[in-house]
Amino acid sequence: MKTRVTELLGTEVPIIQGGMAWVAEYHLAAAVANAGGLGLIGAASAPPEIVREQIREAKKLTDKPFGVNIMLMNPNSEEVAKIVIEEGIKVVTTGAGNPGKFIDAWKNAGVKVIPVVASVAMAKMMERAGADAVVAEGTEAGGHIGDITTMALVPQVVDAVSIPVIAAGGIADGRGFAAAMMLGAEGVQIGTRFVVAKESIVHESYKERLIKSKDIDSAVTGRKNGHPVRQIRNQLTREYLKLEEEGASLEEMEKLTLGSLRRAVIDGDIKTGTVMAGQIAGMIKQQNTCKEIIDDIMSGAEKLLGNR
């Protein structure tokens, strides 16, 4: 399937793997790239040289396009922005801030810039700044989220900008892909389903927790302090929401969550760790390879879209 997104990215299919902190490392990014999509290395808050190392390791595993996701609130983002250019990365997605100050340098180096947005206003701002496309991410997504649902957000963003729109949040199979296309998107970004990919380094306990999840098993913490995060309900979410209700300080709540994502992803602590996942976790029934995931999504979508 060819769209403006596949032309932009140089991929076989218009599927991007989400740049999830601790999860989106070089094994997963390379596997998604080899399967025809765009794999992403999630820079998150990693030291810059670790990001460089991840990029170089991915290059050993694939000769297909892959990119880097940069969290702009990371104090190291400026150094990571330079490393992306030095290492010849051709696609960058961004979150948690405005990439405006980096866009000229990236564009001059031939880097495609795709910010993740949660509102029409941000999408329009990013287009004016020179973004090549935007990821319109609905509140169904895992991790840091906005307020608007994917089904409401995507068509409004599509109507507001002329650059390609990639839909994210609540997409796990061919039905979700086809729905995104009918809303005007030209590609999708998928996170949660790739968490349980066989190539993913995520701890087996985390993967099994997602596979066992039901439709109502996610909770959003941090709405009151302006930092909403969707994750699977557990002891940590209960304690956090209780602190929120009691009006605890942001510092107190940050202390509770410090290192919690790593504990879940790497150590398999699914009780006091942050088990980030989208609302589609209940649709995931087994582990598959990245190729199996992408082939399943595309075959299902093509049947619904009439191979157009």
Feature tags:
alpha/beta, eight-stranded parallel β-sheet, 308 residues
SSE topology:
Elements: H1 4-9, E1 15-17, H2 26-34, E2 39-42, H3 48-61, E3 66-71, H4 77-86, E4 91-95, H5 100-108, E5 112-117, H6 120-129, E6 134-137, E7 143-144, H7 150-160, E8 165-168, H8 174-182, E9 187-190, H9 192-195, H10 204-211, E10 218-221, E11 229-232, H11 235-245, H12 250-257, H13 260-265, H14 290-305
Parallel strand pairs: 1-9, 2-3, 3-4, 4-5, 5-6, 6-8, 8-9
Antiparallel strand pairs: 7-11, 10-11
Summarize the model shown.
With 308 residues, this protein is of the alpha/beta class.
The portion of residues forming beta strands comes to: 5-15%
In spatial order, strands of the major sheet run: 1-9-8-6-5-4-3-2
Helix/strand/pairing category: alpha/beta
> What is the makeup of the main sheet?
8 strands, parallel
- List the total number of helices: 14
Helix content: 40-55%
* pLDDT averaged over residues: 94
Distance between the termini: 8 Å
Global geometry: globular
Number of strands: 11
Radius of gyration: 18 Å
| SSE order, one letter for each helix or strand | HEHEHEHEHEHEEHEHEHHEEHHHH
Description:
The protein has 308 residues and is of the alpha/beta class. The protein has 14 helices and eleven strands. Strand 8, helix 8 and strand 9 (187-190) form a beta-alpha-beta unit. The longest helix is centred in the last third of the chain and has 16 residues, at 290-305. It starts with a helix and ends with a helix. 43% of the residues lie in helices and 15% in strands. The protein has an eight-stranded parallel β-sheet with strand order 1-9-8-6-5-4-3-2. A three-stranded antiparallel β-sheet has the order 7-11-10, with helices on one face. Helix 2 runs parallel beside helix 3, helix 8 packs across helix 14 and helix 11 packs antiparallel against helix 12.
